[in-house]
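U., I forgot to send this yesterday:
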Amino acid sequence: MTMKRVLINAALLIVLALTILWCFTTGKAHNIMLENLQTTSEGVEYQPFEAIYINFGNNPTLMLEGDIIIEQVKGKKLSMQVDVVDEDDKVLETRTISFNINEITNDKNELRMNVPLFYAKAKKDTTGKK
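Result:
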C-alpha cells in the first residue's frame, strides 16, 4: 500500500466517524417533562394556563392547568408551538418557543420545562393567528 492510499483510507474513516456522531446526536430522542404549573423566576411569578395546546410538529397535545406531561422529541435544537385556548377551544394567542435541549436540563440531568415561564420569555407569533 502506498502512503497516499493510507491517507485516503484514514480520511474516509474520519469522515465516517464524524457522520455517525452527527447522526447520533441529531437523531437522538429525548423525553421532556412539560409542566403547566405556577412558578417563580427572578422574583416574577408566572401563573399556569387554563388550557393550552403544545405542538412539536406532530399532533397537538392538550394541557390543562396543573398538568405535567412527557413528550418525546428528536434532536438538540427544538421548536414548540404553544396555542392558548379558551373554553370553546378558540385560539387566543400563539407563540413559538425555540430552545436548545441544554437550556432545559437541570442539575439532576432531567429535561424539565415550565411552559408558562418559557412562554412569557418567547415572542408572539406574527402569523396572523389570534
